[in-house]
Amino acid sequence: MYQQMIFVNLAVSDVAASKKFFTELGYTINPQFSSDDCASVVISDTIVAMMLSKEHYAKFTQKEIADATKTSEALICLSAESREKVDELVDKAVAAGGTAGKTQDYGTMYGRAFDDLDGHSWEIMWMDPSEVQG
């Protein structure tokens, strides 16, 4: 069965630093789709974050590239299998140079956020499986 994929493309100041940051979070880099101008960060079988140098990113848009440290361009939210996994990933991000964001605890839903090296906002959320199945 076909599984649709998502490729999140983000402009970054330093591709090598982004590669290091995301590998420290436990993700892998797909060398087939990576270069000096781009890092293909494999989040899962169906989610890939493409970290593009600003020069390379500019080839795909006529719009001004947002400075994610000053404006919000998107909120990228990833699921986690447990509250502990939420904390683990965000703690790794902060240890790797990211900035901790807001924590949200609603009992059956728990999340924390971080900004990566370029200010892109990532939210990591866990939801109680019994609540999701309804």
Overview of this protein structure:
The protein is α/β, with parallel strands linked by helices. 24% of the residues lie in helices and 35% in strands. A four-stranded mixed beta sheet has the order 1-4-3-2. The protein has a four-stranded mixed beta sheet with strand order 5-8-7-6. The longest helix is centred in the middle third of the chain and has 13 residues, at 83-95. It starts with 5 loop residues before the first strand and ends with a helix. The model has no long low-confidence stretch (mean pLDDT 95).
- Principal-axis shape equals globular
Order of helices and strands: EHEEEHEHEEEH
Q: What share of residues are in beta strands? A: 35-45%
Largest sheet: number of strands, sense, barrel closure: 4 strands, mixed
Low-confidence stretches: none
Short summary of the structure?
24% of the residues lie in helices and 35% in strands. The chain contains four helices and eight strands, in the order βαβββαβαβββα.
Topology, please?
Elements lengths: L5 E7 L2 H10 L3 E2 L8 E5 L4 E7 H4 L17 E5 L3 H13 L3 E7 L3 E7 L5 E7 L1 H5 L1
Parallel strand pairs: 1-4, 5-8
Antiparallel strand pairs: 2-3, 3-4, 6-7, 7-8
